Structure to design on (357 residues):
């Protein structure tokens, strides 16, 4: 027999947990419904975990408008710039293996890179290199649908005038992460796609994550859309060899939770390398900025978090992790007309205020 006082305490705990779960579900539903309010339009998927356990997981809207297919939590999305997390961890894995160092100059790997002796891997990781962001170049449309080898992509922007000296300021930069992907290939002897698949996806158990491809048959693929004045249209087609290691991965919310668990459990990196990804750095003048290696390091309600979003034709994504409470929230959208960024942050804040530990 369980003593009456212990039984009462257990009953109260169960009631408290149940009430918490109901509160989180109700408030999360409300936050998402404000943006994803058309059951017949493109939709999204959201997942919330606390201490590695999924406490919310729902899909909204349609995964395919032409076939009238409802969205499910299993759908695969393009994650855009959340790809940068994987690129940065791949670099740190190579450093852990002794194959490179983040303080190495780019010229050590790409001999003819302009000012490559002054730009380091660290500068590329932290968006402080000053090299021209290819997404801001007018000539981008001329290569958008071409199959570009990594060295061709690097060649596309490397001779452009620098925006500032390395380490002088923080300015978000896709080109830096393309250079990092090329370095991963040069150092590892594998394609970026193979390196990520074998060293991250397979090790983390991410069986529904891919390097994006419009020709490959991908089970449960969510189709991407734009919204025009007259209605929705299919996403603009691009060659994924252009965004490459800065934005060409695909995944599911469940796989992204596995990714987060692999990071917190040091499955892929030791503690020393992991710490490098999640610490703030300083500019040449000593000013601190809020970006580590592949993650923005911000706060929600005064509590430190790690976050990053993504945007690529037809898709938007956002992930927030609060390490002090082990809360992870991720949202995907299959229309770039719907942004999960603020929703995901607001959900994280709701969970933060609701859970005790």
């Amino acid at each position: 027999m369980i003593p009456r006082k212990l039984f009462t305490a257990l009953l109260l705990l169960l009631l408290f947990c149940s009430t918490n779960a109901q509160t989180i579900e109700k408030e999360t539903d409300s936050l998402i419904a404000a943006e994803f309010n058309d059951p017949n339009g493109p939709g999204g998927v959201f997942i919330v975990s606390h201490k590695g356990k999924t406490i919310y997981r729902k899909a909204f809207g349609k995964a395919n408008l032409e076939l009238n297919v409802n969205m499910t939590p299993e759908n695969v999305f393009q994650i855009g710039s959340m790809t940068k997390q994987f690129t940065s961890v791949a670099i740190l894995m190579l450093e852990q293996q002794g194959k490179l160092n983040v303080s190495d100059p780019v010229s050590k790997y790409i001999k003819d890179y302009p000012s490559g002796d002054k730009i380091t891997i660290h500068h590329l990781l932290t968006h402080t290199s000053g090299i021209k962001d290819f997404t801001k170049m007018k000539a981008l449309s001329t290569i958008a649908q071409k199959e570009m080898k990594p060295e061709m992509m690097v060649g596309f922007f490397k001779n452009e005038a620098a925006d500032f000296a390395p380490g002088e300021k923080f300015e978000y930069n896709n080109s830096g992460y393309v250079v990092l992907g090329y370095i991963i290939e040069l150092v590892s002897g594998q394609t970026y796609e193979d390196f990520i698949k074998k060293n991250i996806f397979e090790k983390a158990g991410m069986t529904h994550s891919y390097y994006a491809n419009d020709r490959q048959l991908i089970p449960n693929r969510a189709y991407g859309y734009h919204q025009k004045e007259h209605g929705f249209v299919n996403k603009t087609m691009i060659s994924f060899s252009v965004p490459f290691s800065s934005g060409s991965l695909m995944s599911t919310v469940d796989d992204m939770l596995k990714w987060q668990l692999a990071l917190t459990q040091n499955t892929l990196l030791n503690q020393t390398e992991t710490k490098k990804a999640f610490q703030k750095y300083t500019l040449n003048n000593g000013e601190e900025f809020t970006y580590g290696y592949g993650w923005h390091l911000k706060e929600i309600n005064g509590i430190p978090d790690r976050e990053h979003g993504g945007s690529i034709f037809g898709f938007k994504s956002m992930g927030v992790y609060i390490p002090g409470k082990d809360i992870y929230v991720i949202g995907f959208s299959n229309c770039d007309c719907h942004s999960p960024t603020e929703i995901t942050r607001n959900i994280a804040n709701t969970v933060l205020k609701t859970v005790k530990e």
